[in-house]
Structures are given as structure tokens and as C-alpha cells.
Amino acid sequence: MDPRAPATINVSIGTAAVLGLARVPMAVAPTTAYLMLGGRCQMNCAFCAQARDSRANALSLSRVIWPEYPLNSVVERLAKAAADGVFRRACLQVTVTAAAFAQALIVIRAVKAASAVPFDVAFLPYGIDQVRQIVEAGADHVGFGLDAACERVFDQVKGGKWAHSLALIEQAAETFPGQVGLHLIVGLGETEQEMVDRIQWAHDRGMIIGLFAFTPLRGTHLADRPPPPLAVYRRMQAARWLIAHGLARVEGMAFGPQGCLLDLGAPLPTSGEPFQTSGCPDCNRPFYNEQPGGILYNYPRRLTAEETTQAVQAMELREG
User: Fold this and answer.
1) DSSP label at 250?
2) What is the arithmetic mean of pLDDT over 23-27?
3) For a tag site, which of 104, 193, 220, 268 has the least CB within 10 Å?
């Protein structure tokens, strides 16, 4: 292990349970090992528990608690879990701090030296050279947390330079085809048409699209904002799935005067797959946006026939 490596790393509580580091009840186990590095972020995204001005638990990200464990132990246990087929992928979330990028490179190399498990990294790069370093260190996918579907919402909840962000994401997708993911959050104030437009934009550039439902968190600036209505999220899931599979385009969908999606322009499969967690392969993010026993915005497993019927009905639109 590199002597400059961080002594500890944050591990999602579900991942920690699978690795034998914690004992917690789980309705569904994660199929990806989720790790986090960096600590409180220099950025100040209004929805994020790790934001600079957030008063949320320092060990939180979305609804999930991420306790710290020795890095050596995590790498060793992850390698065994991957070899046993328990984890099919690992994902490292990197916050923006002075040391986080350099430490992320070390963590990636350590995990890849110990295991052949596919490894994804979600971080905010300063430029294409940092993306290249992450890929060369062994990352299979690089995830960009654009989060906002349009500039208006981006300015309100994230700040920064919208045009620069889009240009860098486009450059990364062109430079590393098939290796760039885009994270989008439904419910930050965008219209449905703005979200579907951004999904189409990402798909046309070869990106993997991970869809999240906004989750209000105590201690964040948007703590009092409600999550998106289930009907809205189900419509966005359906649109994303059809676009990602090349079965529909935004131009063939119908929208109302307020940007509400009225018609998908193509039928959905009967499997319920559009309503499962979206993103990189084998990423199921159990209960990242929801509480066990509550409404599942993203199903972390296959849906039953009854659940599929309920999800389709929840969209409140006509198919085809």
C-alpha cells in the first residue's frame, strides 16, 4: 500500500455489512461496494449532506450513513467479496477537498492491485487531465454529478459554471467513449421536458445515465423541499429507459404546456426494468433515496408483476 494512502475510508453501511465490518438488518444487499473519500466538501450543493455549509451528519451522503474503516481492511475484504461474486463492482464517491484527488488515485490503484473488480469513480474534475489520470489508474467509469437538468436549476442549487461543466463532460465522453456516466436528480425544480432533454443529450453522447430522486435531508439548504411526486419520477424513469435503449427519442414524446410528459412515444417492457435503479452495471443503491418499507423510487431488485403494474399505473399517462 502506498505510504501516502489515507489510513481510513468511508464505507456505506450496507457495504460494510456485506464486508463483515458492521451488523445491520438489510432488506436488499448492495451488489456494488460503495466507498467515499474526502470528507466535508468545498462545494456547497444545496441538497448534499457533505456540502460546505451543511449541518447534516458528517458521515452521511443522501440517506445513507458511511462509517470509517481502515483502508487496508476494506481493500482486503473487498477483494475477497469480489472473488466470491458477492460484489460485482465497486464505486468510489470523492468529495472536493485539497487531498481527495491524489488519495483517490491511490485508493483506485490499491483496489485494482488486489482485485479485478470493475471500479467506478464519481468526482468533480478540474479538467480533462484529471479524468485521464483516474482512468489510467484503473477506473472503468467516471461519473459526473451534473445533477441539475438545466442551467436555471444548476445556478440555484449548485453554483459554478454551467457551460464549463457541460463542455468538460462532453470532452470526457468523447475522449473516453463508453466510460462516462452522468448523474441527474429529479425534483430540483426542473420541468419534466427539461429533464428528458438532458437525458437525451447525455445518451446522444454515449453516456451512462444514473437517475436519482431528490431526497430532503435535515441540515441541508433544501431540507424543507419535498421529494418529487411518484408520478413524475416514474415518468422520468420510463423516458430514461426508452431513450437509453434506443426505443424512443425526446422528439417523439409529447409534453404539455408546463413541460409535463404526456406520452412516451413507445411501449414499455412488461418486466418492470425501467423502474429499477439506473446507472452503471450492477449498481442497485438500496434505499439511497427511500426508507425501507416506504415508496421505492428506485427498485434495487427485479419487480414483481404486481409492482410493475403499480409502477406503470403510477405514471398516470397512456403508453404508445
Assistant:
1) G
2) 86
3) 193
